Amino acid sequence: MFEHKRVLLAGATGLVGTCAMQVVRAHPSLRLVALTRREAPIPRGAKMEMIVADPARWPEAIATIAPEAVVCALGTTRRKAGSDEAFRAVDHDLVLRLARAAKEAGVSNFVLVSSVGANVLGKAAYLRVKGEAEAAVSKLKFRRLDILRPGLLRGRRSNDRRPLERLAMLASPVANLLLHGERQRYRPIDAGVVAAAALQCAREKASGRFVHEHESILRAARRLEGGA
Q1: Average pLDDT over residues 127-140
Q2: Residues 195 and 224: beta-carbon distance below 8 Å
Q3: Which residues, 6+ apart, have CB-to-CB distance to 167 below 8 Å?
Q4: CA 66/CA 104 separation, integer angstroms
Q5: Where are the domains of the chain?
Q6: How many Å apart are CA 22 and CA 36, to the nearest integer?
Q7: Which residue in 47, 126, 141, 205 is the catalytic one?
């Protein structure tokens, strides 16, 4: 059995964050507090809190909340952000601001939802920025850092049209048949599974830096289901 743990969620308005608020309903050992830049609906039956604050005040908010773990599900796309600079401002700068505030507040566990293929030397700007964010957060030396690198996320997004992504999801059953061995990490995965894995990592006790790709994410999600 796990003891109660206070977990802060950043990125509650996104796909993984929304799923995390739904998943936590079945896990009373997790006391979730969402920190957002704008109001978002709380799923019915979810015993949690939501605090709306400008990112400039996040250090103060996190210190007040005093979480033991933070799940960072912040993220956008180049198309939605409008420019490379605006994309980086969220997926790197805002992530790092959150991580620094968490470190200063004495948070022990930090969980970062990144992307498969993240690499500081990547040719694609999206994956390069994700890799740079991972590297920057790693330098903060949390007692435990979990980095989740899911493939294409399956799930219903609100007010975020991604036609190419929807086409890829339709093709995912066929794609999965072709993705074996090292390529398994590129398999599409349900956002709810990623959310469950992130919450499980938030309550793990072992120290160190852990990188989770497709199969490891699935195992972590199953551990949450088994531990309730």
Answers
A1: 98
A2: no
A3: none
A4: 11
A5: 5-227
A6: 16
A7: 126
- Per the annotation, the verdict on 103 as an active-site residue is no
- Does position 90 have pLDDT exceeding 50, yes or no? yes
First to last CA, the chain: 8
When pLDDT is cut at 50, 70 and 90, the band that residue 1 belongs to is: very low
5, 103, 123, 130: the active-site residue: 130
d(CA 108, CA 69) in angstroms, rounded, equals 6
Res 40 pLDDT > 70: yes
Backbone phi and psi for residue 146, each to the nearest 5 degrees, phi listed first: -110, 125
Phi and psi at 187, nearest 5°, equal: -65, 140
Domain 5-227 adopts which CATH fold?
Rossmann fold (3.40.50)
Mean pLDDT lowest among 18-27, 49-58, 182-191: 182-191
Q: In the annotation, is 126 catalytic?
A: yes
**pLDDT tens-digit profile of 104-124?**
999 999 999 999 999 999 999
